[in-house]
Amino acid sequence: MELPAVAASLLEEARATNERRLLVLSGGHETTQEAARTLLEALPIGVSETTLIGPDAFLRCEHVDPKRTVELLGRTRQAIVYDAHDALLPNALGRLTGAVDGGGLFVLLAPPLDSWPARRDGFDEGLAVPPFDLKDVTGRFRERLVGLLRVHPGIAIVDVDAGVLERDGLVHPAPRIEYGSPELPSGSGFPREAYERCLTADQIGALEALEALRENGRAVVIESDRGRGKSSAAGLAAGSLAVGGDDVLVTAPEARSTDELFSRARELLTELDALSVDESRLLETPEGGRVRFALPTALGTERPDVLLVDEAAAIPVRLLERTLSIGRVAYTTTVRGYEGTGRGFSVRFRDRLEESDLRSGTRRLSEPIRYAPGDPVEVWAFRALLLDAAPPVAELVVDADPDSVTYRRLTRDELADDERLLREAFGLLVAAHYRTEPDDLARLLDAPNVAVRALIHGGHVASVALLAREGGLPSETRRDLYDGGRIRGNMIPDLLTSQLRDEEAGVPVGHRVLRIATHDAIRSRGLGSRLLAEIRDEFADEVDWLGVGYGATPSLLAFWDGNGYSTVHLSTTRNDASGEYSAIMLSPTSETGRELHDRHAEWFAERIEGMLSDPLDDADPDVVRAALAATDVEASPDLSNRAWRHVASAAYGPGTFDTAPGSFRPVAVAGLVDGDVLDERRERLLVRKVLQGRAWDGVADELGFVSTRMCMRGLGEAFEPLVDRYGNETALAEKRRYACGDENEGRNEGDENDGGDDD
Fold it and tell me: How many domains does the structure of the chain reveal?
């Protein structure tokens, strides 16, 4: 067997069909590296068109660390070599297959395939979550991967140690039918030259949709799988808008991922003889139009005419929200992607876009541009990583309700052996959650701390939950955590120990709900609650607590509160993917778990005052309200007599909040924890003014008071029922002083008297 000849045949067929081919070199580490070096030297692929992914730079070409493959988003290469001996990273594998251009070659270096599933590598080390160790990790993901490598078209396998060609990978396809060039639109607003550069009818349709950006108040979403030309269409639109004099700002997770977009814009402007400034990330026209780049973190200060958000799914929702203030904006986003960023855009952001003042439309591209339709490497990657996994069709579960479903434990062996069951369960997680990624598939199949539970209707998955065992940590691990160490896969014990300084938090054992998802067709029927109740019944005698951590929204807080979970922490930084502050909630199942919960719930209620005036001073007041209402503690503010007199006099007499704000905060927290004392508007007033310390004018405007004076009066009135419920005898005596007469007329008014009416 001549390895260069095998690779040359693969490459020849790939170029003839505009498809990709995958070549697996299995064997020892050094022998596979030498084989890769030999074949690449013999192939007609330039060094500048090749990228090596792996720990060692053993090839004379671009070298990227496996953990930084996100740098290849938006780029294409003729050859990619992935050295997976030290670690096979599922996320990286997906990104890399998407970065190989049509007519290109993907070379995978692997240990001997028969023994590969039984080996443990660097990725497996991340699955060995304490108290488990590496021997507890299984190899089902790689076993499935190897099985698909050995049967899928377009994949050659060479055992370089034995010098044996196991598969030649040749497909021998029938000749393709040529359909000719797509029809160009007439009467378009963009230059005809832009449309002439489109390669498919899908791309022409996307460019037509982007013409909406010539008008104010418009938003356009361009969706596709990888390799469909959405970034190229965005580049042609950017150039067309710049020709008309618009300032077009392009943003993306990394500047390098916009190479394709800027190349297409540059080519168009050059053809139109409209390029006066040509720099790497800045194109200008003689008419003053330009195409420029800025990172997403700059969106709050930039005010372009048009904003193009490339790879929107990889940008935190919190930053995407800033784009809604731009009058003309487009989002390109990968639907079934290799990014490993999940569905933050579709799950969390699309609703906010629909609720905005922008008129929005969506265009979906399906025809590949980088390679031919039906490319075998894409089909293999989608199947191997379940990028195309989907829930069961709605008709199969539409009649499901809490009484019709069966609670079921889905073992890892069962999932590995039943492809339909695996695709339904994983597809449900992909459809419902913004962070489900290829790594999660390997975690589901191999991680010893992960359990899967589901509700089954008619043999199909209607609702599913992923659970992670945490806690039960040995004393030396707990000491290390307390002293600043970190620990994998024990998020709640880690946080309670290292950040909240509880060295015993790692002793109780718990299950954290990593993901929970119910089919779209049957949401709001109580299935999620039924699943959580079944989980509690199953594990009540095995663990001390159940817990969850997630990007907090009012509706999610209410859901978990309604299912017996209560708040013990709000993070002080926003989640990168969701853009929300994360809530940590516990539901104790034993006396030990109750003790853990109680001491952290009580401390949360004590320290939230300081958090809201500093790191959480921009938190959504409805999130704060819901988080505190879900805190299971006894509300009893501890104030001195002097402080109670001040609060009571502000509520019922001439006292003012501004002279001693600290006296009011424990009372406000108590009222929010009880959650049944005030209406929503007054609760928001407590959050914004008393706890977050916002300026009076801003609070009055935000909450709809007709004047600042009325906002001040409203705060005094909000404290009346709080004094009645929590006040001591001193407070009640102060109240009685003002119970009769008009002594309290004008309270909290300060020097302002605009004669406005209370609203």
Answer: 4
